[in-house]
Amino acid sequence: MRRSFANILLIIVLAAAGQAGDRVYTGDQTSNTVSVIDPVTNRLLGTIRLGQAVPAALSPLYHGALLVHGLGFSSSLKMLAVVSIGSNSVTLIDTETNTVKGTIYVGRSPHEAFFRPDGHELWVAVRGENYVSIVDPVRLREARRIVTANGPGMVMFRPDGKYAFVPSSFTPEMDVIDTATYKVVARVPQTSPFSPNLAVDQDEVWFTLKDSGKTQVVAAEPPFRTLAVLDTGPITNHVTLVTNGAGRFAYITVGGTDEVLAYRRDRGKPPKLIATVRTGDMPHGIWGSGDGSRVYVGLENGDCVQAIDAATNRVIATIPVGQLPQALVYVPAATISEAGNVNLRPLGAAAEALHFELVPPAGAISGAHASVSVNSLGPIDNIQVAVTGLRPAETYRLVLTGGLQPQDLVTFQAGIGGTAIPQSFGPIKRALRPSDKVPAMTLEVRSGESGGDLVLRQARN
Length: 461
Known about the structure:
By secondary structure, this protein is mainly beta. The protein has 2 domains: 21-348, Methylamine Dehydrogenase, Chain H; 353-458, Immunoglobulin-like, CATH 2.60.40.200. It has helices spanning 5-16, 428-432; strands at 23-28, 33-38, 43-49, 68-74, 79-84, 89-94, 99-105, 110-115, 122-126, 131-136, 141-147, 156-157, 163-166, 173-178, 183-189, 198-200, 204-209, 214-219, 226-231, 236-244, 247-254, 259-264, 272-278, 283-288, 294-299, 304-309, 314-320, 325-331, 353-359, 369-376, 381-388, 395-401, 407-413, 423-426, 442-447, 454-458. The strands form 8 sheets. Strands 33-32-35-36-29-30-31-34 form an 8-stranded antiparallel sheet. Strand 32 and strand 33 (407-413) form a beta hairpin. The longest helix is centred in the first third of the chain and has 12 residues, at 5-16.
């Protein structure tokens, strides 16, 4: 088939988006890896292993990271900060060589971290406690703490470095910190308590509210008034702000609907939804490219990253990564030499996953739905189920049925938005696959702690 000159030019532009040396990174929570992508070719270069996979990581943890999750970076320092929730650690990686420069241990369950614009300090949100830990990235030690509302979820800076913004994951309050005095100068009410992520520019702060499925927009200067509260959808995860020749935009991942929402941001006007981009299973981390031409999205229950063309708001590439990718960052000029491809490992067992969905039983009138990811961990598997459309505060069970008797995997409770993300371990793949002697079992969600009604069951192809 002959292509027009315009189509050929478009293909060349898409292939050339991004700059040589730019990198996309994901924090892979179950495989305890960081995946490294070249955005020029949209190809996985390999992974950086920071710890062993479960169950080995459940033994006394003297070495290595557990539950790799958050990411921050400094292009000027050529440094990536990787936050691991289970080992209470921040690992600093040299992006030129993909090698570990050092590890700092902080308080209980840190979630995200980011460098000040000048690169002199790394601020870590210690979500399991009530403070931001300020780390010296040269001396590899904590320099001070700033007390915040309980459960700080993330910290990001206004581009001029004057203010840091810290939403909470347990308290309906976002704290604003004056970086010159290290003091909280404003406490902004959150629409609901659980915020995992935010994005900041000189004018606005956008932060997501995962529990209620909303996104709140606040002015980035005193008195930090709320400008908008958007109904974005169940399991609203991360947000990124993008500027390009077409204007200013915000992109938000909505894990419960497998969508990315694109909003236009015109000064003095309310945000306007301009596009809904269908993605793979459970979009989570998101970041725009340095030139604003693309947006990269990590699919938590899909074990891959998708690239969205910001001009057309269409998915143009899908790239496999490690297990259950959480945070994602796009780092301009992460490397300036060919050494940027060394010390990387292939995916290995991380690529061996099952992905399917749970749907209401035939004839049921229900808006409930779930996506399922089953990741290989050697002798056992990790199963994660992202469920939406449940009754808030009600108890449910994840059950394997079809054998001699039902096997309960985990009991869980729906949040205020009717969502839940339960996990469990076991020989799940073996149970779900038939053999000559044993028929395949079926995964179900049932209401109540015992007995109860069938809410969702495994969809069969």
